[in-house]
Design a protein that fits this description.
Helix content: 10-25%
Order of helices and strands: EEEEEHEEEEEH
CATH architecture: Beta Barrel
Number of helices: 2
Strand order of the largest sheet: 5-4-3-7-6
Length: about 120
């Protein structure tokens, strides 16, 4: 897959009253925990988990067209960092060995995406 569309693209978020730019290519996944979304990054320069007060729906709309995919009600993944899609357990293993559950309703969409792009 070509992830060049993520290069030089940034998302601006508010973190503890400060504006911060995060490169899309550094974001591995975003998980929603109640009213807080947590952005997980793969970058060594910035924190690996950044809590923000943005809805997952709003984040999903900002990521549209940049190879991010919603895998369940509470999680969006950057397909660049997906290492394994396990059909048996319906989980995704990220490059950092984090395992994320894919909902049964989203599984067909996720597997179809991988089938098209392999």
């Amino acid at each position: 897959m070509d992830y060049s569309s993520q290069v030089s693209q940034k998302i601006i978020i508010t973190e503890k009253g400060k504006l911060r730019q995060i490169a899309l290519e550094c974001i591995s996944h975003v998980r929603c925990d109640g009213y807080i979304s947590i952005i997980y990054t793969s970058s060594k320069e910035i924190n690996t988990a950044i809590p923000v007060c943005i809805s997952l729906l709003e984040i999903e709309s900002k990521f549209k067209g940049y190879h991010f995919l919603r895998v369940d009600r509470n999680c969006i993944v950057n397909l660049k960092y997906v290492e394994i899609l396990d059909a048996k357990t319906k989980t995704i293993t990220m490059q950092n060995q984090t395992k994320l559950k894919v909902s049964r309703r989203r599984y067909s969409e996720v597997s179809k995406y991988f089938a098209i792009h392999t």
